[in-house]
Amino acid sequence: MSENNxxxxxxxxxxxxxxxxxxxxGLADEVVQSVNELLRRGMSPxxxxxxxxxxxxxxxxxxxRDGILFVPEVLMAAKAMKAGMAVLRPLLAETGAxxxxxxxxxxxxxxxxxIGKNLVxxxxxxxxxxxxxxxxxxxxxxxxxxxREHKPEVLGMSALLTTTMPYMKTVIQALERExxxxxxxxxxxxxxxxxxxxEAVGADAYCRDASVAVTTAKARLEERRNAVPV
Amino acid sequence: MSRNLEGRARRAGRAxxxxxxxxxxxxxxxxxxxMLSPESVERLHHASMRIxxxxxxxxxxxxxxxxxxxxxxxxxxxxxxxxxxMVTACVAKAPSVFTQLARNPENNIPVGGNAVNFxxxxxxxxxxxxxxxxxxxxxxxxxxxxxxxxxxxYMHHSGGTVVEPADEPVETRHLDMVxxxxxxSDKPFMGSVTSAENAADTVRMAEILFGAExxxxxxxxxxxxxxxxxxxxxxxxxxxxxVYARARQGMVITPFILSGAMAPVSIAGTLAQQNAExxxxxxxxxxxxxxxxxxxxxxxxxIDLQSGAPVFGSPESQMGLYASxxxxxxxxxxxxxxxMFTSSKIPDAQAAYESVMVMLPAIMARTNFVLHAAGWLExxxxxxxxxxxxxxxxxxxxxxWSKGLDLxxxxxxxxxxxxxxxGGHHLGTEHTMRHFRTAFYRAEMFDYNSAEVWxxxxxxxxxxxxxxxxxxxLASYEAPALDEARDEAxxxxxxxxxxxSPKAS
Lengths: 230, 505
Ligand code: B1M
Fold this sequence. Notes:
The complex is a heterodimer.
Chain A: H1 12-24, H2 28-40, H3 45-65, H4 71-95, E1 102-107, H5 115-126, E2 130-133, H6 140-150, E3 154-158, H7 167-177, E4 185-189, H8 195-201, E5 205-206, H9 210-226
Parallel strand pairs in A: 1-2, 1-3, 3-4, 4-5
Chain B: H1 3-17, E1 26-27, H2 38-55, E2 57-59, H3 62-70, E3 74-76, E4 79-81, H4 84-91, E5 97-100, E6 109-112, E7 115-118, E8 126-129, E9 133-136, H5 139-151, H6 173-184, E10 189-190, H7 196-210, H8 212-217, E11 221-227, E12 232-233, H9 235-246, E13 250-259, H10 267-288, E14 294-297, E15 299-303, E16 310-311, H11 315-330, E17 335-336, H12 349-364, E18 369-370, E19 376-377, E20 382-384, H13 385-402, H14 409-412, H15 414-419, H16 430-435, H17 451-456, H18 462-476, H19 484-500
Parallel strand pairs in B: 2-12, 7-18, 8-20, 10-11, 11-13, 13-14, 13-15, 14-17
Antiparallel strand pairs in B: 1-7, 2-4, 3-4, 5-6, 8-9, 15-16, 19-20
Helix pairs in contact in B: 2-10, 4-10, 5-6, 6-7, 6-19, 7-9, 10-11, 11-12, 12-13, 13-18
CO-5-methoxybenzimidazolylcobamide (B1M) sits at the interface of chains A and B.
């Protein structure tokens, strides 16, 4: 919606549709304007998130999976989502509403393949996660420092070399040593990685691709939030 | 001897002569396909110079940055900026042709000029065959691929990481890989690049095999230094590069670019970036050791912008190959590119089409070093046994036509034409009798029979034939003799290095 329409004149149900369309078209400024307008009308941050942003990005996700949208389009949509989330995140925290989640992601020590990790970051941001991308070639200390700093629910590790894959285990062992293992859901990925390997190194799940990373992170978080504390 | 036995001996002799297994060197004698005009080459060159001088290249290693700085590069943080004259002057110090040593001197290869060399697939962590499907690669598989490359008369090189042997500890598997190339083949091979230490081990083993002086004169290993596009050299590659350059060993400096992700979505922009990255690495190698042998590498393809997956065999990559080779020639450097690339998971029609669609430009661009010339599957994630022997068949065909057209009197065969009356046949002319065994390339993996004969023989497709061929080859393998003393010295060295490894128990 790039025309200078007066948003205040548009009905709420229609405004939600406009957000969905603007997300689809990757229009960050317009998404932010609509989000602000919904909040002004008194819609709760949580409803704005779920009915506006998340519902919109669900369509993007489906159309990406079905081969309708291209990666650059999804990237622009994710950027628009990120802009909308920047408005909502502090309000969600204030109101005590559940946030979608925070993630730390990086490639492990010795590995500089980062295109896959970048795609995962993009899709996770598109799904509303706050992602701290700590880049390439991270040793266990860097992962731990990032977890202490950002307190994520999800840790993502990427490796594309069979020579660097075992380092995922080193990181997970370090997490255990530092008493952090239970704090994070550990997801691993990268072309040569597979599910048995993920299990062997003690990760929570293997993610085949960026879309699967999103659905897995969401599902695991949901399970965790619903789990009865012992 | 009875007449009968004599006849048999003669027939057996003929059958033996049928084995066309003589070693072949390819000199590409056909015209080289120049896709670009000289002005276009200049335009790309200037764009690359702009990238080098204005945008810079990251070098994630302090010592490397110091070396670059002492040669006049401007350094700002990790980023290094090159003056165009400085780059071209350094690049000019690289030899345009060099010889790589093999332990059998007959297998030494010229790298550069008219020579085209084929080397096997590199890097895959998985293997695939018809009997056991796709599985993690082991050292046994590594050795098998070394043997297959050794046995192919069309393969000039033993390669490097023909598969990544997951059953050997990460810390020491480079030793087993280098040793296996030396032990099971007598063709030239590639060194380890995953750390400076592994590179130093490779050099040491080459010294044991060839002697320290010999390998300073002519390189005994050639190693794959990948640029981590866009515009970055990581510490491991730089570590290996310093070791190999100081030892005057060969290096293939290759920006490995998936356009769309690591470079612009246009071929031109990708070429400009690739050229800048390759020249930066080549210039750096010459700063360390002037005259150290290097190859201008290109591994240019694209991602599928719909899914994000790498694509091998795209028409854009084929055009990129021609242009890259032309750029390398422009700077007087040997060129690496191409390979039997495919995104297919099995050796099917997709695999065959894609592979050939990349190999033709590789040949017509006169690529001096063709890595991945056999065995590549699944975007480089799997080495295929059957794919390997099928690819070798195509390499044999390429050997045949690279020689160019023979227009000698004998080849014009006027006598034969005169001898056969209109409507006659050439099956028995003197000319035919002189040449019939070698006149035409006979593919062993392809079937030329009638449908009836083919059906009676079990209706095999090429995959099934290749499976049999692999087994036959491996069963027939005999190791080329290796000097006992050297073999022992190599084994001692490995044992010592393994004992020193932190993983050793
Ligand atoms: C939650 O957490 C998650 C969840 C999901 C996750 C996840 C994390 N991470 C990934 N996913 C998943 O989601 C993503 C999107 O759907 C997917 O990510 P992918 O990364 O798989 O997919 C990307 C979108 C596109 N794919 C890629 O970008 C990787 C493609 C291949 C061809 C590849 C490339 C491009 C490169 N390489 Co490298 N490279 C190969 C790769 C072969 C292959 N087919 O994968 C591979 C992995 N490399 C290999 C090798 C050997 C090497 N490479 C090297 C270098 C490079 C480049 C730098 C040149 C370049 C990367 C540049 C860059 N900026 O990333 C060297 C090592 C560098 C290092 N220290 O890391 C070097 C050692 C080469 C050498 N000189 O010897 C092989 C690995 C062999 C092994 N040991 O396992 C290899 C299979 C190719 C080959 N046959 O040689 C999923 O896996």
